[in-house]
UniProtKB/TrEMBL annotation:
Mg(2+) binds at residues 79, 153, 155-156, 323. It catalyses: 1D-myo-inositol 1,3,4-trisphosphate + H2O = 1D-myo-inositol 3,4-bisphosphate + phosphate; 1D-myo-inositol 1,4-bisphosphate + H2O = 1D-myo-inositol 4-phosphate + phosphate. Belongs to the inositol monophosphatase superfamily. One of its GO terms (molecular function) is inositol-1,4-bisphosphate 1-phosphatase activity. Its cofactor is Mg(2+). Keywords: Lithium, Magnesium, Metal-binding. This is inositol-1,4-bisphosphate 1-phosphatase. It comes from the Eukaryota. GO terms for biological process: phosphatidylinositol phosphate biosynthetic process. Its EC number is 3.1.3.57. The gene is Inpp1. It comes from Eolophus roseicapilla (Galah cockatoo). PANTHER family: 3'(2'),5'-BISPHOSPHATE NUCLEOTIDASE 1, INOSITOL POLYPHOSPHATE 1-PHOSPHATASE.
Length: 396
């Protein structure tokens, strides 16, 4: 499987380029933010252009990975349907075509009459992304692609991506909202066991670049495998710097672009602002009365990975396999994981003190329909330090 990890990272970089493009280029930005609904809707604005950005990124990742690794074709899954209605009411299946011209023509069927927008997107879809990351290039793995499947979340925290708030200041290191919480998530799992084994998280909007106004990709380098490469080849001036993180947890192998966060005696807990009051009340004493809040499941999981928080608790079944697969693989690489909250609490109440079962990614929920088949229905707890996990389960 030489190059699969590199291919996942490269796909995330192209996805990040498209996500930035939609916010940078005026023909695309207008479609992204200026949509209207009902009688005031202007037909030249696609009603759900934000979904088109999601879908196009998803289809690009499917195309690029499936082309390089035919064994993965039919096993690359995403959140979005790739069917759209054209302005004339016809069904258009969004996909990557053989040439930029063909892809632009297909996108124009959805975006008509916005030809420039379609061409900008098509150029990004067909542009090669070169990685200059020596540490990543030196990673050698022996995981057969035929044993793997992929979950993609093309733009996690889509609402924050659309709102585009650029200057939301962090609270204790954690951004409570904003564009920085919009992430690209690509995770690979074992088809047979459902266990996550490879994960890539890309932060397209890590920070603004006011000096050069060019895209310079910076990897995280808190230790571990060292910095990711720089990539300065962009035909347009860009306002944002991005970065990516990856992890491998396969058999006894644990590799990551990051090193495990240092120990924290008092757990820092990050939650959704919609979290149940009873859960908040149970966790406040554990963390000295100070809870952290953030938008986006992927971003909250990233906070655990980066050591900005120690525990992410979600008591509702409002996340899905595509939200958790990539971060889960990285957490496993760092010695942590993601457990199903309801199952873990049930086991503790029954006196079982063993390690709670981790989430798996190959088992749809029986009797559920649509996307709900892939919900993490019992909530979850993400952690790096097992002692923090035990403290949270005891508190709940």
């Amino acid at each position: 499987m030489a190059g699969l990890l590199q291919a996942l990272v490269g796909a995330s970089e192209k996805a990040a380029d498209i996500a930035r493009l939609c916010r940078r280029e005026q023909p695309l930005f207008q479609l992204l933010v200026a949509e209207k609904t009902g009688p005031d809707r202007n037909r030249r604005f696609l009603q759900d252009f934000k979904t088109l950005a999601d879908v196009l990124i998803q289809e690009v990742i499917k195309h690029d990975l499936g082309k390089k690794f035919p064994e993965l074709q039919g096993h690359i899954h995403g959140e979005e349907s790739n069917e759209f209605r054209s302005p004339e009411g016809e069904t258009v299946t969004v996909r990557v075509c053989a040439t930029p011209g063909d892809t632009a023509a297909l996108l124009l069927a959805v975006l008509a009459p916005e030809r420039e927008a379609a061409e900008l997107l098509s150029d990004a879809v067909h542009r090669d992304v070169a990685l200059a990351d020596a540490a990543l290039a030196g990673v050698e793995l022996s995981i057969p692609p035929r044993d793997l499947a992929i979950w993609i979340d093309p733009i996690d925290s889509t609402n924050e991506y659309i709102r585009g708030r650029e200057d939301v200041g962090p609270v204790d290191g954690v951004a409570p909202a904003g564009l920085c919480s919009a992430l690209v998530l690509i995770g690979a799992y074992d088809r047979h066991t459902g266990c996550p084994v490879l994960g890539v998280i890309n932060e397209p909007f890590f920070q603004r670049d006011p000096e050069t106004r060019r895209y310079r990709h910076h990897g995280q380098h808190r230790g571990g495998w060292g910095p990711a490469g720089t990539h300065t080849e962009s035909p347009h001036p860009l306002r944002w710097q991005g970065r990516y993180h990856w992890g491998v947890a396969y058999g006894d192998m644990r590799l990551s672009s990051l090193s495990p966060p240092g120990p924290s005696p008092v757990p820092r807990v990050v939650l959704s602002r919609a979290e149940a009051p009873a859960v908040r009340a149970a966790l406040e004493p554990l963390c000295g009365g100070r809870l952290l809040f953030a938008a986006g499941a992927g971003y909250k999981l990233l906070c655990i990975i980066l050591g900005l928080a120690d525990i992410y608790v979600l008591s509702e079944g409002s996340t899905f396999t595509w939200d958790a697969c990539a971060p889960h693989a990285i957490l496993r690489a760092l010695g942590g994981g993601i457990v199903a909250l309801a199952g873990a609490l049930q086991a503790r109440r029954a006196g079982d003190t063993g390690t709670p079962p981790e989430l798996v990614y190959n088992r749809p929920i029986d009797g559920a329909d649509g996307t709900e088949r892939w919900a993490n229905s019992g909530g979850l707890v993400a952690y790096v330090d097992p002692q923090h996990l035990e403290a949270v389960l005891a508190a709940l």
